[in-house]
């Protein structure tokens, strides 16, 4: 599975991160040498004070303490031994440098504690995100799966789009859904959908019953939020649920979701179905018909492509939607590795919107696994 996250340019392991962390040392050397070679009195105290302050913002607590002590001693040596001023010693400057170091040390302590706390919170968030969208083995019940997720929220790995795939007594079952809202505000509803799918898909024979239970869970989720003081609103999600077996037989039930596609040797074929209500809205229209299952078969080279509307509704700066079908017609090829196709599609999507989506986007490609894959990689 591919998840994207923006790199931290100040990461200590990166070349830029190492260069940033070397700034205090470079600043100290420049000031020290300038004071030694300057033909006139150089106000080293003003600049030396910046060295421990810079270390407090970029380095560790230990390095900040070292720079604070080093700058204080260096200023004393420069002022009294190495480059004394002709009009006497600058004791006030020494106090300024020492005071700057004394302020830098608690500043560094506070910053490092805050960073540690943020890191711990980040670990918790990542565990929660993995619980909602757990990493799946590359093959599940004889079906190979490749997935890609692009969250709209910065540094998030999950949002309002969810998916899952599990092996059941009735075949391998997968679903993809787009919950009302976007980003972290829809995570709770998405988690409720994932948990209900895992339970219902394993125990219900009919895919329509799986969808019914998922819709009921969304309705309960909305009621529970109202009881907890949340807004009184109808939570819903477009969703597609599928059963696949190792012989290539496929059954799908579409709850108002984007039409899936089959990528084959002869091109891309879109599986169109009559629109039905999204999950969670059955209570508003009891007379509405349930979605009818659609059956077809995947050939040995076919791939089933699923996605959310964060892909089709992504707009560029001029308001034009991303041309998914045209892009697929040009670039989708059953001979290409699915992971490479998803990566290219994600990159094209981000290029279309200028680097950042305004809605979450989820992509999946399912195919019948090769016999060797089933024995060595099947989860």
Structure description:
This protein has helices spanning 15-21, 23-37, 44-48, 50-58, 61-82, 91-132, 187-203, 207-227, 309-312, 324-331, 338-353, 371-376; strands spanning 2-3, 139-140, 143-150, 161-168, 171-179, 237-244, 249-255, 261-264, 267-270, 294-297, 303-307, 361-368. The chain is α+β, with helices and mostly antiparallel strands. It has two domains: 2-127, no CATH class; 136-376, Phosphatase 2c, domain 1. Strands 1, 2, 3, 8, 9, 11 and 12 form a seven-stranded mixed sheet that branches. Helix 4 (50-58) packs antiparallel against helix 5 and helix 4 (50-58) runs parallel beside helix 6 (91-132). The relative contact order is 0.11. Mean pLDDT is 84; it is low at 1-10.
């Amino acid at each position: 599975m591919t998840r994207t996250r923006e790199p931290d340019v100040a990461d200590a392991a990166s070349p830029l991160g190492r260069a940033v962390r070397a700034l205090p040392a470079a600043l100290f050397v420049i000031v020290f040498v300038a004071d030694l070679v300057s033909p006139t009195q150089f106000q080293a105290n003003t600049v030396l004070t910046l060295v421990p302050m810079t270390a407090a913002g970029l380095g560790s607590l230990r390095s900040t303490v070292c720079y604070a002590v080093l700058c204080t001693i260096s200023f004393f040596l420069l002022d009294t031994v190495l480059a004394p001023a002709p009009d006497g010693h600058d004791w006030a400057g020494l106090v300024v440098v020492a005071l700057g170091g004394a302020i830098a040390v608690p500043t560094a302590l506070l910053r490092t504690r805050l960073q540690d706390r943020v890191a711990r919170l980040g670990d918790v968030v990542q565990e929660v995100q993995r619980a909602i969208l757990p990493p799946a083995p590359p093959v599940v019940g004889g079906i190979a799966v490749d997935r890609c997720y692009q969250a709209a929220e910065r540094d998030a790995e999950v949002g309002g789009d969810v998916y899952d795939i599990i092996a059941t007594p009735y075949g391998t079952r997968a679903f993809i859904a787009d919950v009302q809202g976007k980003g972290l505000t829809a995570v709770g509803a998405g988690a409720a959908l994932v948990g209900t799918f895992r339970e219902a898909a394993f125990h219900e024979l009919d895919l329509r019953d799986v969808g019914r239970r998922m819709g009921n869970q969304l309705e309960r989720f909305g009621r529970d939020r109202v009881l907890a003081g949340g807004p009184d609103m109808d939570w819903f999600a477009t969703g597609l649920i599928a059963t696949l077996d190792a012989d290539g037989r496929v059954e799908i039930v579409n709850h108002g979701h984007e039409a899936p596609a089959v990528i084959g040797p002869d091109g891309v074929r879109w599986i169109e179905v009559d629109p039905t209500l999204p999950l969670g809205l059955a209570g508003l229209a009891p007379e509405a018909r349930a979605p009818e299952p659609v059956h077809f078969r995947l050939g040995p080279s076919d791939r089933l492509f699923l996605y959310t509307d964060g892909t089709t509704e992504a707009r560029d700066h001029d308001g034009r939607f991303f041309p998914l079908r045209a892009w697929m017609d040009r670039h989708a090829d059953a001979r290409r590795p699915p992971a490479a196709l998803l990566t290219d599609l994600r990159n094209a999507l981000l290029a279309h919107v200028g680097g950042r989506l305004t809605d979450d986007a989820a992509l999946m490609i399912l195919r019948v696994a090769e016999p060797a894959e089933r024995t060595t990689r099947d989860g």
